[in-house]
Amino acid sequence: MHRYLPHFAARPVPRYTSYPTAAEFTDGIGGRDQADAIAAIAPGDPISLYLHIPYCHSICWYCGCNTGAVGRVERLTYYVEALLAEIAHVGRRCAGRVQAVHFGGGSPNALSPAQMLTVAGALRAHFDLSPDAEWAAEIDPRSFTAGHASALNAMGVGRLSVGAQTFAPIIQGAIGRIQPFATVAKTIALARNAGIDRINLDLMYGLPGQSLDDIAATLAAARTLAPDRVAMFGYAHMPKLLPRQRRIDASTLPEPEARFWQRALAHDLLLEWGMQAIGFDHFARPDDSLAIAARTGQLRRNFQGFTDDPSPTLIGLGASAISQFDGLIVQNEKHVGRYRMLAANGIDAGVRGVRRDAEDRLRARVIEQLLCTGRLNLGRLTAAIRPPRHAWDELCDAGIVTRDGDEVSVTPSGQPYARLAAVLFDRHRGPEARFSQAI
Ligand code: SF4
């Protein structure tokens, strides 16, 4: 079922974890807009929280996240102080009811177990948290301890996303992330022993020197860990935007066609395990909530990728964290020093973003629906946002979508190219190549 379409695979397209995308953010949006949006949340409205920890004990060369090396431990102390100030400042003005809490980064477990518990205590003190709220955290196995496992369990975290990427030692060397399989296995065992029984595993294709054999071997090893979900991300090499990637030898990166077949092999092997494909880069056990959401039309897409979190409002806390409200997307100050200054002075930390008018919100819903369900009824869309016929014809001719009257469906072999259908609804996209290739 896999079809390599070089012309389409190489096209730069956004990941559409939001619409408008971060490329449309400007500094015309700031803390006052953020404050107004927080104040407009009605009592009991469902919201989710995202907390960003912009530190890791060791920086991986491929990483595209806003993170830096911990260095002196005082940095963490000062950062937690700022985060606690922001939690109190936002929480006391936010009337929403929290349905989900996600810790990301960076590495949340760059914090000590005691610091994690302090942050969780502040969330409980200042926000109205639903007792059923799902708590999740991303973690770096290289610095994960039994103390972290029991702290996370005490906080209420029931799901961990474990960064693994590849189990091939030579590729780990080429991406600056030496992490033996035993380290990952021990991390997962510690989590499960502590009572955290839902495990996501993050893997990558398109890494330097990676081959189909490496993909097969990594997935065979991953299978022994029995994860509930697997995310299979393509490495995006953008050294001009991300200077740390300059340490990766670009001459050893797989060619576009090799990337395509690596993704295809991973897809097939994960389905052989009995996993269900979710969107274009996630896989889940059929009894996992993400797979159930996909089957029942409840799948969503937010800054974490595909999700079953239904909250329409996301509040980001921490340096560079992004909040999404109905009419506004706003990002906190990225620079940790400046973020700390804002938080310490009780100033809302948003410094850039984009407003969403009614047309943006409609386009956002259409893009999300296309990526989450693979289907769309063009007849229900206003002429203003309906793409021209020739744009669909190109995708139909390539077998990426089929069209039956007004009904458009992404084909099974077109799934990896689904963002090329989504981009037709993006009124901001020009021919620029700021985004990574589709596959
Ligand atoms: S551990 Fe994760 S967040 Fe930290 S540098 Fe590596 S990839 Fe980036």
How would you explain this protein's 3D organization?
The chain is α/β, with parallel strands linked by helices. It has two domains: 7-355, tm_1862 like domain (pyruvate-formate lyase- activating enzyme); 358-425, Arc Repressor Mutant, subunit A (Orthogonal Bundle), CATH 1.10.10. It is 34% helix and 23% strand. It has helices at 6-9, 31-39, 74-91, 113-126, 146-155, 169-174, 181-194, 212-223, 256-273, 289-295, 336-344, 358-373, 389-397, 418-422, and strands at residues 46-53, 55-56, 68-69, 97-105, 128-139, 157-165, 198-205, 229-234, 276-278, 282-284, 300-302, 305-307, 313-317, 322-325, 328-332, 350-355, 375-377, 401-404, 407-410. The strands form five sheets. Strands 9-10-8-7-6-5-4-1-13 form a nine-stranded mixed sheet, with helices on both faces. Strands 14-15-16 form a three-stranded antiparallel sheet, with helices on one face. Strands 17-19-18 form a three-stranded antiparallel sheet. Strand 11 and strand 12 (305-307) form a beta hairpin. The longest helix has 18 residues, at 74-91. The chain binds iron/sulfur cluster (SF4). Residues 56, 59-60, 63, 65, 67, 105-107, 140, 163 line the site of iron/sulfur cluster (SF4).
